[in-house]
Hints:
Radius of gyration: 15 Å
Number of strands: 0
Number of helices: 4
Shape: globular
Order of helices and strands: HHHH
Strand content: under 5%
Largest sheet: none
Amino acid sequence: xxxxxxxxxxxxxxxxxxxxxxxxxxxxxxxxxxxxxxxxxxxxxxxxxxxxxxxxxxxxxxxxxxxxxxxxxxxxxxxxxxxxxxxxxxxxxxxxxxxxxxxxxxxx
Length: 108
């Protein structure tokens, strides 16, 4: 354990996480599209977070990539959270080959 104690990483992670969400929340979208984009971001992050290391720098970078992916597929008519989420994950999968982001299937 380092001199900062066992909770230092969690404090750092919590302090960087709002940056990506702030990017979404500050987007030039109408209120309904903004709400859908925010929810799509949160749901997509919940799905991929377990694939990301505990390194705060990688967490921040991946969350920013995800925020930009959501914004790249959202427009003022966006309302379908599941569609936005999947489109953003598809963008991430195409652009971030080092991170496995494809949804798992239960194929026999």
